[in-house]
Amino acid sequence: MTDMSSLHAGPHVLAFGSVTHVMAVINLSPESRNLHTIAPTPAAAMEIAHRHRDLGATIIDLGGQSSHYDNPTIDPAQELDRLLPVVAGLADKNFVVSVDTWKPEVAAACVKEGAVIINDTGGLIDRDMIEVVAANEVAAVMVYVEGKHPHDVGEIDYGPDKAKRTADVLEERIGRLATLGVDRLIIDPGIALNYRGDYARYTQLQLDVIRQSQALHDLGHPVLIPIPRKKEDHRAMAYITLALEYGADVIRVHDVEEACDLVRLFGRLP
């Protein structure tokens, strides 16, 4: 079983145990529906990232491609135009930089500029993406997605024991990745991805997966709970609280100040 006490990501070491790391989202995609997370310029992104780190966030997650299925799929060159100046600037200031992408060419270019975590919303299935991770001293977030990537989704499977069934899928994938030299993994059950279908039913499924997340912890890798962005702020805070209560190793959040305060309240800041 993987040593859960720490995770190496490039030159950085993330310690785990009785702590929860806050992964702060900064969107470089103007199409994003989470308007308060959008940085219109690299300078603005740098300013936001410094503010998030001062609040207690340990990982900055950059996105140049909106993952909502209603938004356009942009080409890798455009995604990189958005990402690379910020990746390079943050890496130069010793930030732990994560890049949210399902495109291997985007991941490869960002790693060269200093990204140390690839947040693969394609589920770490694409062979080229696996090679990018295996060939570099980076960590990867393996996101569970019912489709090839977030723009290739329909209605999610609402069957019972969703966390356990998700864990079963990821367990097989973990074993295969280990044979390919990829073991610096963070597990994400994918409950913040947008699916077509019944929103209220999906909301309940998201809560159920957090409550049943021990099945994910049993896989032997740090567990990231992505906090779904809700129209009602108090609901987003409820998700954060639930994730902390159930021992999330990382929470990926849009509401960074509030999340850091709650992590501090729980005594779980690294």
Keywords:
8-stranded parallel beta sheet; 17% strand; TIM Barrel; two-stranded antiparallel ribbon; globular; 10 strands; alpha/beta; single chain; 270 residues
Task: Identify the CATH class.
Answer: Alpha Beta
Give the number of domains.
1
Query: CATH-wise, what's the superfamily?
Result: Dihydropteroate synthase-like
Overall helicity: 25-40%
**Ranges with pLDDT <50 over ≥5 residues?**
none
CATH architecture descriptor text: Alpha-Beta Barrel
Beta-strand content: 15-25%
Q: Would you tell me the structural class of the helices and strands?
A: alpha/beta
Gyration radius (Cα, Å) is 17 Å
Instruction: Estimate the mean pLDDT confidence.
Output: 95
Dominant shape: globular
Number of helices: 9
Which oligomeric form is depicted?
single chain
- CATH fold naming: TIM Barrel
The largest β sheet comes out as: 8 strands, parallel
Descriptive account of the structure:
- There is one protein chain.
- With 270 residues, the chain is an alpha/beta fold.
- It has a single domain (6-265), classed as Alpha-Beta Barrel (TIM Barrel).
- The chain contains 9 helices and 10 strands.
- The protein has helices spanning 42-55, 76-92, 104-112, 127-134, 162-179, 199-211, 214-217, 233-245, 256-265; strands at 6-9, 12-15, 21-27, 59-63, 97-101, 117-120, 139-143, 185-188, 224-226, 250-253.
- Strands 8-7-6-5-4-3-10-9 form an 8-stranded parallel beta sheet, covered by helices on one side.
- α5 links the parallel β7 and β8 (185-188).
- α8 packs parallel to α9 (256-265).
- The longest helix is centred in the middle third of the chain and has 18 residues, at 162-179.
- It starts with 5 loop residues before the first strand and ends in a 5-residue tail after the last helix.
